[in-house]
Amino acid sequence: MTVIAIYLIFLVFTLIAIKLIQWARKQSRAAYAFGAVTQMFLPDPYVQRTIAVVQENKAPVKKQKEHDGELKD
């Protein structure tokens, strides 16, 4: 019984993957929606690195805006 369940789970995941690949090749809205929802609920394994990269990228932009006089606090 357990072996059959494992094969069925594998089969279901394989069919889902095939369908997602077809949607992605067609650039379907469903593929984009599924990707966005999946990204929201899956944890980011590199959270600290991502935060550091975003902070580093924001610092030069903020300094440039301050230099140009666009940023007023």
Report on this model:
This protein has 73 residues and is mainly alpha-helical. The protein has two domains: 42 residues; 28 residues, no CATH class. It is built from three helices and no strands. Helix 1 packs across helix 2.
The sequence of SSEs as H and E is: HHH
Q: Which spans of ≥5 residues are poorly predicted at pLDDT below 50?
A: none
Shape: elongated
Percent helix among the residues? over 70%
The rounded distance between the terminal residues' Cα atoms is 66 Å
What is the multimeric organization of the chains shown? Answer: single chain
| Mean model confidence by pLDDT | 81
Strand content: under 5%
Structural class: mainly alpha
Gyration radius, to the nearest Å?
A: 22 Å
Summarize the biggest pleated sheet: none
Q: With helices defined by DSSP (H or I, 4 residues minimum), what is the helix count? A: 3
What key attributes describe this structure?
mainly alpha, transmembrane helix, 2 domains, membrane, transmembrane, 73 residues, 82% helix
Please give the structural blueprint.
Elements: H1 2-26, H2 29-41, H3 47-68
Concise summary:
The protein is mainly alpha-helical and 73 residues long. The protein is built from 3 helices and no strands. Helix 1 crosses helix 2.
